[in-house]
Design a protein that fits this description.
The chain has about 280 residues and is mainly beta. Helix content is about 10%, strand content about 55%. It has a single domain, classed as monomeric porin ompg (Porin), CATH 2.40.160.40.
């Protein structure tokens, strides 16, 4: 019951942020200001943007397990920190810290709550796009066995290559991110990891700083030879909490393909992306 009340409170808090509060300042905002907000909103669709951000993403999936009666609420805390290496190159650190509450996924195991395995990606990226307008980055991805419950993680250390490429043409952002993780150490009783992750994405940003996006977060497990393919669509709006820019997003997805014990049907997402002052990164 306490968990349900906490989740409901968080949902209402996020929804409250989405309600516009009219003010004379907002009504008199200039076109230049709106253009700046739209530019920032579009920058947030770029995984390699020179922005320090903290996306907090909640995902709800259901019909999980052998009996299809399990469900999972996963909150991903995903700090993104860019570092300026020199005049030509940047290093973008992207970390995913999953906090999960799940129930009835494993027969007889009841519910679990805690931290899952941390995923850390480091992209080395040129500061300037290529002659064709392509923005790209590449580097290592690491899987750290930080799960606080054996049913929330793989109990394996993993590593592999990662890359992302995109282009921004007018209000459009189109690109793809991919990585592959092999396990190299950990619990010998747990299955080895050999997973390919592919995330194509497309987004369109309006001058009003609204953005609509469609993407997939597909994973292919080379050990089981099974795909997990959710198709996600979302709408986001850039707002300000005082002087702090925050992108608020709501989305829905559908599992086009998943393993026998994986989630099925529709999934739901809420996200708040906090943009921190650039001065913190200097």
């Amino acid at each position: 019951m306490k968990m349900k009340m906490m989740v409901i409170s968080i949902l209402f808090l996020l929804l409250a942020f989405c309600i516009p509060v009219p003010s004379a300042q907002a009504e008199d905002a200039s076109e230049a200001q709106q253009g700046g907000e739209a530019g920032l909103a579009q920058e947030l669709t770029n995984p390699l943007a020179d922005l320090m951000t903290i996306p907090i993403q909640m995902n709800y999936d259901r019909e999980i397990g052998l009996l299809d009666d399990g469900w999972k609420l996963q909150t991903n805390i995903q700090p993104v920190v860019p570092f300026h290496l020199n005049e030509d190159w940047s290093l973008i650190s992207r970390t995913i810290l999953p906090v999960t509450y799940q129930k009835d996924i494993f027969p007889g195991a009841g519910s679990q709550f805690g931290l899952g395995d941390i995923n850390l990606t480091l992209f080395f990226s040129p500061k300037k796009p290529s002659a064709g307008g392509v923005i790209w980055g590449a580097g290592p991805v690491l899987l750290l066995p930080t799960a606080t419950d054996s049913l929330l993680g793989a109990k394996k250390w993993g590593a592999g290559p990662a890359a992302v490429a995109l282009t921004m043409r007018g209000p459009w952002t189109v690109g793809a991110l991919a990585n592959h993780i092999w396990s190299f150490a950990g619990d010998s009783d747990r299955q080895d990891i050999s997973n390919t992750f592919v995330q194509p994405f497309v987004a369109y940003t309006w001058p009003s700083a609204w953005t609509v996006s469609v993407q997939s977060e597909s994973t292919y497990n080379w050990k089981t030879e099974k795909w997990s393919i959710p198709i996600n669509a979302a709408v986001s709006k850039l707002v300000f909490l005082g002087k702090l820019p925050v992108s608020l997003q709501a989305g829905v997805g559908y599992w086009a393909e998943s393993p026998e014990t994986g989630p099925e049907g529709f999934r739901f997402r809420l996200q708040a992306n906090l943009v921190l002052p650039r001065s913190l990164n200097k």
